[in-house]
Amino acid sequence: KSYNVKSKGVFNWPVKGKIITDFGKQSGGRMNDGINIISVKGNPVRAALNGKVIYRGNELIAWGNLIIIKHKNNWTTAYAHLDKFLVQKGENVKTGDVIGSIGSTGNVVKSQLHFQVRKNSKPLNPVKFLKK
What we know:
By secondary structure, the protein is an all-beta fold. It contains no helices and twelve strands.
């Protein structure tokens, strides 16, 4: 299935910054299921769309501190490498609410946000769905 229905601009940018790792295949054949946006440690990370926090934790070592938000129409967004959590699991958030802060937890050296957009659990290129 392709989701390039008129769904451009579904999400707000969770943080302003330059994309340092694009979606898709990386050198060495690894897949990046999202994008990585460089930012300053402690900068606010915002919910890209209204939704409910369905995960908040750090069991996935590579991702460090991770928040996942479920949105309507089977969309989810993920926010990884956070320094701090500012929401609880089960909390409803609105677009633009601060949910955490930029950090370098997990397997990254520089402070950044790893951001994913999924539809029906399938990772899609967030750039295609972020507002310009």
